[in-house]
Amino acid sequence: MLRLIDFVDLGTMLGELSENQIEDLLKELPVGRIGCHADDITYIVPVNYVYDGKNIYAHSAKGMKIDMMRKNPEVCFQADVITGLQNWECVICWGRFEEITGLREKEIIMQKIINNIMPLMQGETAQPSHGFTGAASEVGEDVELILYKIVLTRKTGRFERV
């Protein structure tokens, strides 16, 4: 009969990330997940984002996620690095959704998001597609591009290492 101890590596260490480790992880990663809840439905979806040390900034075309966050702006955000089942770091944040409406602010935030994700794009003409306009640096001509921030109120982080 298998026992739990048969699956546990005694060299594994679980712990909490420091505030600096949480900040570094959020600044380093280009993709996280937003959890939102409205009308008795919980929805979790990956998003490209950029973090400025205070807020999470992201973009989207209009859809379920935006509709839900407009109804209930209290959201959860999660980002992680997983290199193995016993080697991972994870940050979970809570905050409030706020749409960005000023054109100049939208352009600045959009450029920061593009700068954050472009190193991951493949090919010289590669361009992110979801939620972007025809030319990625333009805001609001081809697609109803919605830029928003998550004003963070709480952050926590955990890790497991062998």
Write a structural description.
The protein contains 3 helices and 7 strands. By secondary structure, it is an alpha+beta fold. The chain has one domain (12-161): Pnp Oxidase, Chain A (Roll). Strands 2-3-4-7-6-5 form a 6-stranded antiparallel beta barrel. Strand 2 and strand 3 form a beta hairpin. The longest helix is centred in the C-terminal third of the chain and has 15 residues, at 103-117.
Helix content: 10-25%
Strand order of the largest sheet: 2-3-4-7-6-5
- Dominant shape: globular
> What low-confidence regions span 5 or more consecutive residues with pLDDT below 50?
128-134
Task: Let me know the number of strands.
Answer: 7
Give the SSE string: EHEEEHEEHE
User: Which structural class do you get from the secondary structure elements?
Assistant: alpha+beta
Oligomer: single chain
What is the first-to-last residue Cα distance?
Answer: 25 Å
Report the sheet with the most strands, covering strand number, pairing sense and barrel closure.
6 strands, antiparallel, barrel
Radius of gyration over C-alpha positions, nearest whole angstrom:
18 Å
CATH topology: Pnp Oxidase, Chain A
CATH class: Mainly Beta
